Amino acid sequence: MSCPYCCAGTAEGALVCSACGRDIAVPATLIAERDDLLRKREELRDELRRARDEVEAITRRRKSR
């Protein structure tokens, strides 16, 4: 694991970075929330990709008329 502030290597499970002294402990609830947000972001990206493909298909059909 590396410190999110100074990028120094830290021991797994460390609460404080030994290089910069900053608090690096992340509560499990924040990790779960982050994972949920990442999942939702990916779902939204997929939805946006499908919508763009649909708009592109509609545009091509209109041009071919």
Average pLDDT over all residues: 91
Shape: elongated
**Largest beta sheet, briefly?**
none
Which segments are poorly predicted (pLDDT under 50) over 5 or more consecutive residues? none
Strand content: under 5%
Helix content: 55-70%
Instruction: Report the C-alpha radius of gyration, rounded.
Output: 22 Å
Q: What's the helix-strand series?
A: H
Number of E-state strands: 0
> What is the first-to-last residue Cα distance?
58 Å
The helix tally amounts to 1
The computed structural class is mainly alpha
Overview of the molecule:
This protein has 65 residues and is mainly alpha-helical. 55% of the residues lie in helices and 0% in strands. It has 1 helix and no strands. The termini are far apart. Keywords: Coiled coil.
Give a quick summary of the entry.
The chain is an all-alpha fold. The protein is 55% helix and 0% strand. The longest helix is centred in the last third of the chain and has 36 residues, at 28-63.
How do the strands and helices of this protein lay out in sequence?
Layout (H helix, E strand, L loop, with lengths): L27 H36 L2
Keywords: Coiled coil
Question: Which characteristics define this entry?
Answer:
single chain, 65 residues, mainly alpha, 55% helix, 0% strand, elongated, coiled coil
